[in-house]
Design brief:
Four copies of one chain form a homotetramer. Chain A has 139 residues and is an alpha+beta fold. Chain A is 27% helix and 43% strand. The first copy, chain A, is built from three helices and six strands; from the N terminus they run ααββαββββ.
Chain lengths: 139, 139, 139, 139
C-alpha cells in the first residue's frame, strides 16, 4: 500500500471501531512506519487529581504502536500486541493529547515500535515501547 | 488504616472518579497490599476483532496496581505510577473482566506491584508490573 | 522429554557454554516450565558500592526465563528472547544468588516467563518478565 | 560539573570497578545526559549459538543508562536503577559492541533514560529503557 492507501485503511478502521469513538481517538495521519492519533482530554479522562488518567495514556500508546506496526505488515498477515511498556514522565492536563507511534523494526514474526505521548504544547507526557507478534491472518 | 477503612477509602475514591464510572470499573475488594477491581466488557470496550481492547486491559492493570500501592502508603504521602509493563497472554471476550493488583515491595520512595487480569472463567488474559513513586503529599 | 532428560539437556548446555562458566552460572535444577540457576557472587560481580551489579541480576533473569521456556519448546523448534524487563527490589551482597525462572504461558510462536532472583537468605532481589519468540529451528 | 569533569569522573569510576574491567567495558565518552560505553565481544560473551549473550547486552544497557543519569544528578545525591526493559532486535556477533545511553528526563526523585546497543557496523542490536531513583547520598 502507498501512503494514501495506508491512511485510508486506518481511517476506516478507526471510524468503524466502537472503542475508538467511545475513547474519542482520531487518526491524525499515517505513513509507512508512523501513525499519529489524538484525543481531546475531557473530564471523564481525568483521575481524581484532575490529571490525565494513566489508562488513557496507555490506550493511546497501545493504539499508536499497534497501528504503526499495522502499516508495515503485508496483506494476509495481522498483528497482535504482546507487550506494552509505558513510562509516565509528566502529568497531563485537559486538552488535546497526541500519540505518535513509530516502528523501529518489523520482522516476519516480531515487530518493535515506540510511541511518544505529547500534550497540546508538545511536552512529552510518556514514552512507550511495544512488542507485536505478526502472524498469518486466518479469517 | 485497617482493612475496613482501606476498602471504604478506595470505594469512595472509585465512586467519585468520573474516569472510573465512565470506564465502568468497580471496586470488588481491598485489603493491605491487595486490590481487586472489575468491569463488564461491553461493545465499546472491544476492538475491531470483537476482542477486549489492549487499552482497557492496561487501564485495569494500571488502576489495580496503583490502588494496591495506595493501600500501603501512609497518611500524608501519595503515589504516582511511573512505569507500567503489560504482557498480553490471551484474547479477551465480552463479559466480566477482573484485575487483581498486589504489592510485592513498597519502600519509602519506590513501590513495585503486579496485576493479574482475568476473564469471567478465571483465565489469565494479562500480567502486568508497575513501578510507583511514593512522595510527600503537598496539598 | 521427561524431567530427567530436560535437566540433562540443560546441564549439558550450561556446561558447554563459555559464557555460563565465565559468568559462574550453574544449573541447580530443571523440570517442565521451571529452571533454577545460581552463581556465587564474587568481587568481580559487584559494583563500586560493593553491591551486586544490575547486569549480573539481569543476566541471571535472562538465562532463567530463557531456559524455562526452553523446557516447554518441542523438538525442532528453538527460542529467542525478544524482551526482558527487570525490577530491582533490593541491593544484593556477595554470596550465593539464585534465579528461578517459570513459564506462565508458552504458545506456538510466543512464550511468556517470569523470574525471581533471590539472595542466600531467600530475600527477593529482583523480579523479571520475559517475552520469548518460538520458531522453527533451521539448522 | 562541566563536560570534562563528567568524563573524568566516569572514567575514574569505570577504571576502579572490578566488574567493569572483568566485563571488558570501557568508557568511550560522556557529556551531560549522554554516555557511550563499549566492549570487544569475545568468546566468553557468546551463547551456545555463537551470538552475543542477552545478559551482556542487558549489562551494557544497564550501565549506559545508569551512567547517563549519573551525569545529571547533582553532588550529594546518588542514583539507583529500579527498572530496566530491554528489547532485543537483532542477533549480535563477536566484535566491538557499543551502548549509547541518553537521559530523557531526570527529576528530583525519578529519572528516565534510554539506550541503543549497536554492533561494529552501527546496526541496532537492542533498545532499552530504564527507571532510575535519585536520592540523598547518605555516606
Amino acid at each position: 500500500m502507498d501512503r494514501h492507501d495506508i491512511e485510508a485503511d486506518l481511517r476506516a478502521r478507526v471510524a468503524s471501531s466502537a472503542f475508538h469513538s467511545w475513547m474519542g481517538m482520531e487518526l491524525v495521519g499515517a505513513e509507512p512506519g508512523r501513525v499519529e492519533i489524538s484525543l481531546e482530554a475531557a473530564d471523564h479522562h481525568l483521575n481524581l487529581q484532575g490529571l490525565l488518567h494513566g489508562g488513557v495514556i496507555a490506550t493511546l500508546a497501545d493504539t499508536a504502536t499497534g497501528l504503526a506496526v499495522r502499516t508495515m505488515v503485508p496483506a494476509g498477515r495481522r498483528h497482535v500486541t504482546v507487550q506494552l511498556d509505558v513510562h509516565y514522565l509528566r502529568p497531563g492536563a485537559p486538552g488535546r493529547v497526541t500519540a505518535v507511534g513509530t516502528t523501529v523494526r518489523v520482522g516476519t514474526s516480531i515487530g518493535y515500535a515506540e510511541a511518544d505521548v505529547l500534550d497540546a504544547k508538545g511536552r512529552l507526557l510518556a514514552r512507550a515501547t511495544a512488542t507485536v507478534a505478526v502472524m498469518a491472518d486466518h479469517g
